[in-house]
Amino acid sequence: MKITFWGTRGSTPVPGKDTIIYGGNTTCLEIDLAGGKKVIVDAGTGIRALGNKFESYGDEIELYLLITHIHWDHVFGFPFFPPIYKSSTRILVDGYSQCMKGLRYSFDNKMGDGFFPIRFEELNADIQFIDKLSNGYLEIDGAVIDTIPLHHPQGGLGFRFREGEKTLVFLTDNELDGNKGSLDRYTGFCEGADVLIHDSHYTPEEISKHSGWGHSDYLSAIDLALKAHVKKLILFHHAPERKDSDVIKMVILCQDLVKEKDTALQIEAAKENSTFDL
Fold first, then answer.
1. C-alpha dihedral over 69, 73, 79, 84, to 10 degrees?
2. Nearest of 11, 35, 33, 14 to residue 23 by alpha carbon
3. Residue 234 β-bridge partners
4. Are 4 and 272 contacting, i.e. CB atoms less than 8 angstroms apart?
5. Kindly report the CA angle at 67 between 55 and 112, in degrees rounded to 5?
6. Which of 93, 143, 216, 272 would staple 220 via disulfide (CB 3.0–4.6 Å)?
7. Residue 89 gets which letter from DSSP?
8. What is the pLDDT of residue 182?
9. What are 94-145's pLDDT values in tens digits?
């Protein structure tokens, strides 16, 4: 697997001089599987730049689009994804049960005059909801993808990708609230993962004011990673007010905390336009 971050920010895009290092676009990941198939996770504003990259791929494009949930910051980049306007594009959608509703509503929710110049029905691409994950798992060329419910308002899904001997877990917009039963489920889902990408929207000082908002602080993410014997934790869904300098300080603090615990867990923060191989 090769993983590329196209959007790492939470809640709202924040382009500008303070988000150059870690990025200002909202959630979008590109995952290239060993067999050549391409998977995109979420359609936040980061998907626009990813779509521009596809211009060099030629005419025919086939990809999987997995949606964690349909809050705006995870779907409102979809109308700006260039491949959806080409009849040679085929997009297989799966994930959260209401994902197609969310993609459609980014164009028009039928309660006004619409949000975009054209309608979803006028898109040229072949866009299909395959609905495999609601019944178990999705297999793509030997890679197995399964899910776990997110602890987030209106719900959502986290994803685990297993290809060969490698495992990647993606849990954004997930509130680790200290409930033992809930934590045990997430620990089992993440057990032994090579990489865990987890929501760390808040600091420990901020989290008490945002109980029930569906996000975690970095200490909770570290605790989960340690309990699940994860090899690397990547902090994700950076708060819109979090400047690059703030994220750098947070990463250093987290790395120092892990050193004190004398563990081998690696910690870093997700950077827009960065890539790693697994």
1. -50
2. 14
3. 197, 268
4. no
5. 90
6. 216
7. E
8. 85
9. 999 999 999 999 898 776 677 889 999 999 999 999 999 998 999 999 999 9
Half-sphere exposure of 133 (CA within 13 A, CB side): 27
φ and ψ at residue 136, rounded to 5 degrees: 145, -95
Q: Which CATH architecture has domain 2-277?
A: 4-Layer Sandwich (3.60)
pLDDT, tens digit, 9 for 90 and up, residues 199-219: 999 999 999 999 999 999 999
Task: Give the pairing of strands 275-277 and 28-32.
Answer: unpaired
Structure tokens at 27: 């959630």
For residue 256, what are its two tokens?
């120092």
Tokens representing residue 57 in the block: 């791929």
Whether pTM exceeds 0.70: yes
**Spatial distance between the Cα atoms of 26 and 19, rounded to a whole number of angstroms:** 12
Q: In 3-state terms, what secondary structure has residue 210?
A: helix
Question: Average model confidence (pLDDT) for the chain?
Answer: 95
Q: How far is CA 271 from the centre of its chain?
A: 13
Give counts: helices (H), strands (E), the chain. 6, 14
Decide: residue 220, CB within 10 A, 0-12 exposed, 13-18 middle, 19+ buried: buried
- Specify whether the CB–CB gap between 270 and 234 falls below 8 A: yes
